[in-house]
Amino acid sequence: MKKLKSFINKNLEIFNKGKFEEINREYLVEATNALNPIIKIQEKYKKYDNDTFFNELKDGMIAVYLDFELINTEKHGLDAKKSYDENIWLEVKQVSFTSKSWSATFNDTNEEKANAFKDIKTFLAVGVWGRMTELLFIVYGQNPEIGEYLEEKVIECHRERRRSTQTISVPKLIKEYNFKIKAIDVDVTHLKKIFRMKYSGEDWWSENIE
To answer: Which of 53, 73, 86, 105 is the most exposed place for a label (fewest CB within 10 A)?
Structure first.
């Protein structure tokens, strides 16, 4: 039998991070009871993987608001397609309203995915969410420079032998790539206030609101 290595016993920095509070059992009970009906929906549509279930729900909502009819139910490929007859694709990213920064995150990007964003048939959408099903607004559009940026980073990461995970901020998508902003669960006036509270300085977003 292989001899086990000895454990260390140190005051590691990670042990000093976080804020630990007593588990709120009332919250656990209420949340569990609220989520139980979802199990019936998972059974009905045979969607048992929780991550896939919620991703398809959120991706589907964004796709519908942007007039796409088809959703990708597999893990590979782009997230939505315009219709059976129209070869227009959509990649969807999600971000929480409470996140410190609003960005589109591209995990494990490869050259194939980068090339897709250089193609005129591919669009990108970033949904900003409040509560679970509260879609506040969508930032969407297309620009071949996104594909060029991702391709450059993929090659760089491959050369340095590290994972290719890239982010493009919402301000960059709007200011540099001319993406549009579509209000969903908020009106345009409230949407402008949201951006004013999030970003100081010159108003660079109003002209891009639909």
So the answer is: 73
- Provide the sign of the torsion angle of the four alpha carbons 134, 129, 63, 61, taken in this order: negative
Which H or E run contains 50?
helix 50-65
Torsion of CA 151, 92, 178, 110, to 10 degrees: 0
For residue 207 the two structure tokens come to 């002209």
Quick one: 98 exposed, middle or buried, by C-beta within 10 A (0-12, 13-18, 19+)?
A: exposed
CATH of domain 22-208: 3.40.210.10
Side by side, the strands of the sheet bearing 80-81 are 70-71, 80-81, 89-96, 122-129, 135-141, 180-183
Outline where DSSP puts E strands in the chain.
Answer: 70-71, 80-81, 89-96, 103-106, 122-129, 135-141, 166-169, 180-183
Of all residues in the chain, what percent are helix, strand and coil, respectively (each to 5)?
Answer: 40, 20, 40
Instruction: For residue 4, give the DSSP letter.
Output: P
* Tens digit of each residue's pLDDT (9 = 90 or more) over 174-196: 999 999 999 999 999 999 999 99
The DSSP H or E segment spanning 172 is helix 170-175
Length of the chain: 210
Judge contact between 148 and 188, C-beta under 8 A. Answer: no
| Cα-to-chain-centroid distance, residue 156 | 23
pLDDT tens digits for 37-64?
A: 999 999 999 998 888 888 899 999 999 9
Q: Is the whole model's pTM more than 0.85, yes or no? A: yes
